[in-house]
Amino acid sequence: MALALLWTLQPAEASAKQSMSKGVDVSKYNGGVDWNQAKAAGIEYAFIKVGSTYSGIDPNFAANITGAQAAGIKTGVYIYSYATTPEAAVQEANLVLEWISNYTVNFPIVFDIEDKCHKNLSQEQLIAIINSFCMTIDAAGYYPMVYSYKNFFDGKLNICGWDRWVAHYSDSCGATNNVCFWQYTSKGKVPGFNGNVDLNHQYKDYSSLIIPEGFMDHNGN
After folding, report:
1. What element of type H or E holds 96?
2. How far apart are CA 126 and CA 161, in angstroms?
3. Residues 27, 187: contact at Cβ < 8 Å?
4. Cα distances (angstroms) measured from residue 95 to each of 36, 52, 88, 105, 217
5. What confidence score (pLDDT) does residue 108 get?
6. Where are the extended beta strands (E) located within the chain?
7. Closest to 128 in 3D by CA, of 82, 90, 180, 81
8. What does the alpha-carbon distance between residue 146 and residue 78 come to, in Å, rounded to a whole number?
9. Average pLDDT over residues 94-99
10. How far is it, in rounded angstroms, from Cα 164 to Cα 145?
11. Half-sphere exposure of 140 (CA within 13 A, CB side)
12. 142, 125, 141: which is closest to 86 by C-alpha?
C-alpha cells in the first residue's frame, strides 16, 4: 500500500496494466538524486541526459549514471538533438559515444528529437536524420531508440522504424506503433528526488537484447 501511494499520477489501470516496470528520466534540472531511495521506491531504470551540442555534457551526467548504477538501476542515456542534417546527427552520435566511453550503458541510447529546429523539416529529412544517428549508435554496439512527443510521432515521424519512447501526458498513450516506453507525466513524485520528476512505463523487454557485459550476437557478429 505504501509503495502504491508513491505513484500519485499513475494513469488509469486499463492503460498502465501492461507496463513491465517504471522508471525515470533525469537531467541537471533534477538536481542531486538519492538513487538508493529511488531504487527502494521501485525505480528500475533511468534515462540520463548526457548533454547536447549547444550546452555540452550535462553537469550532472557523471553523478547520475554512477549513482544510479551503484544503486542497481539500469541506465540508458539520451541526447537532446539540434541536428538538421544527417551529417550533424552522426556528429551527435559520435559525441555521445565519446561522452559515455568511460561508463557502462545497459539500456538504450536515445535520440531526443523535438526541438523547434525540427518543426519545418520534411518527413524525409527527419527520417534521414534519425537513421543516421541510430545507425551510428547501432554500429558501435549499442541499442538506439527515438524519443519525441505523440503528435510528432503521429505526424512527421509516423514511419520511424526504430524503437519509440513517446511523451504524452494523458490517461493513455494514444500512440499505436512500436511504443517501447511511455513518458506519462512530468510531475511524478518519487523518494530521492527534490521536486517533480518524469515517470515512464516500459513495454519491451531488453534483457535479452542488452547485456551488462560479455558477448552476444549483434548484426551477425
Report:
1. helix 86-99
2. 12
3. no
4. 29, 9, 10, 15, 25
5. 97
6. 22-26, 45-52, 56-57, 74-80, 109-112, 144-149, 164-167, 179-188, 197-202
7. 90
8. 9
9. 98
10. 6
11. 21
12. 125
State pLDDT tens for residues 19-33: 889 999 999 999 999
Share of residues in the chain with pLDDT > 90 (%): 79
pLDDT digits (tens, 9 = 90+) for 33-74: 999 999 999 999 999 999 999 999 999 999 999 999 999 999
The pLDDT, as a whole number, for residue 6 is 36
Look over the chain and give the mean of its residue pLDDT values, rounded to a whole number: 89
* Cβ contact 33:192 at 8 Å: yes
What are phi and psi for residue 162, nearest 5 degrees?
A: -80, 160
Distance (Å, whole) CA 7 – CA 199: 9
**Residue position matching grid coordinates 538536481:** 31
Sign of the four-CA dihedral 185, 116, 60, 102: positive
pLDDT band at residue 12 under the 50/70/90 scheme = very low
Report d(CA 48, CA 25) in Å as an integer: 6
